[in-house]
Amino acid sequence: MCYITLFSKSSLLIIWLFVPLSTSMLFWATAAYLIWERQDKLQYQTSLVASLFGTILLSMLLLKTTGYCEESFLFIYPFLAGIAIATIASGFRGLKEYWRELVLLFFSGIPEVLFATLADPSPVTAQFATAVLWYSGWPVTQNGIYINLAGTSVQVYSGCSGVVAMSQLLGMSVLFLMLLPLPWKWSQKLIIPIAAVAIGFMVNVARVALMAILVAQKQMESFEYWHEGSGSLVFSVIGTMLLVGVVWLLIKLFTPASPVREEAE
């Protein structure tokens, strides 16, 4: 493995993670970078049917964006647009050439839709936050999605369940796997997305516990700051930094060091 390539891509990825771009822009930029990196190897062979399909699909997506768009559509849009563009460029058979880019665009938003549709982790989040508070010495009880602390009650609704944090870090983990040339087994690579989901969940649990404490202490201005203000972004940065740290440790653990060649005297 070339460590220069690994270092350069790692630096590029870390810069992208902390540049104030939207998540969607980050995934589009990464997909564009991957295509540009192997542009000479792609086969641009399409058919009339494939071109028509891609053009119609892309036109429908663009037309949809001119009016009211549901939040779920905005999450699915990058993946569908990627399929349309790839089909226009290389046809149906050529879609497999863009599997990395399509996987990236899939994880840019669709997991959040799936998480929210299949299950609501709010009760589990409330349970873990209650446990954190209880082990920290707070007289706390839980009733479903409600955390009762010092005569106050905080509701952990779906927006605070951790779905957003888990989905975003899951997408970031896929970015790592696509950008970094890691000669690992699939079982080893699978650790990164699992760790990403776990980090997203636990960071959100800490955030919910903090919200409960602020409400119990009647610090509503601080609550609004950490709940919906700029403070809420701090937890996203913390989660991203933890994920970067985990990936760095895994690289140290799983990637063998290249042998040092001695120069001939």
Automatic annotation (TrEMBL):
The keyword Lipid biosynthesis does not apply. GO terms for biological process: proteolysis. It is a multi-pass membrane protein. Keywords: Cell membrane, Hydrolase, Membrane, Protease, Transmembrane, Transmembrane helix. The keyword Membrane applies. It comes from the Bacteria. One of its GO terms (cellular component) is plasma membrane. Signal peptide: none annotated. The chain crosses the membrane at residues 13-36, 48-68, 74-95, 102-119, 156-178, 190-213, 233-251. InterPro entries: Exo/Archaeosortase_dom (IPR026392), Exosortase (IPR019127), Exosortase_cyanobac (IPR022505). It is found in: Cell membrane. GO terms for molecular function: peptidase activity. It holds the Pfam family Exosortase_EpsH. This is Cyanoexosortase A. The lineage of its organism: Bacteria, Bacillati, Cyanobacteriota, Cyanophyceae, Gomontiellales.
